[in-house]
Write a structure and sequence with these properties.
The chain has one domain. The protein is about 85% helix and about 0% strand. The chain contains four helices and no strands. The protein starts with a helix and ends with a helix. The model has no long low-confidence stretch (mean pLDDT about 90).
Length: about 110
């Protein structure tokens, strides 16, 4: 993923509408690209921070954004674990089917 693609995805990320694969690619890029992290910070401040400030609430921008990124990383990790477990379940199902087929044929 390049910077232009990442910048287009920032509003989608901030509205929590990226799928797991997109989220993984987005986080990978943002965490390794200072320019995109800066753009994310700016858009986060404009989209989220402005409304909080208008409501008279104070907040720590860096802490709030880090919390959002931490939650997103957790979601990606959870998605990867579930994907891995589904592959394992498919393999086990395949093996069981082969065993049943062998038992039917040779018994």
């Amino acid at each position: 993923m390049n910077c232009k693609e990442t910048e287009k995805m920032i509003p989608i990320f901030l509205t929590n509408k990226l799928n797991s694969r997109q989220l993984d690619q987005f986080l990978e890029h943002v965490e390794n690209c200072p320019d995109c992290m800066e753009e994310l910070t700016i858009q986060y401040l404009v989209m989220i921070g402005t409304s909080l400030i208008e409501e008279g609430q104070s907040f720590d921008l860096r802490k709030a954004l880090n919390g959002l990124l931490t939650e997103a990383r957790y979601m990606v990790k959870k998605w990867k674990i579930l994907t891995f477990l589904s592959y394992i379940a498919e393999i086990i199902t395949f093996i069981v089917m082969i065993i049943i087929l062998i038992m039917v044929i040779f018994v």
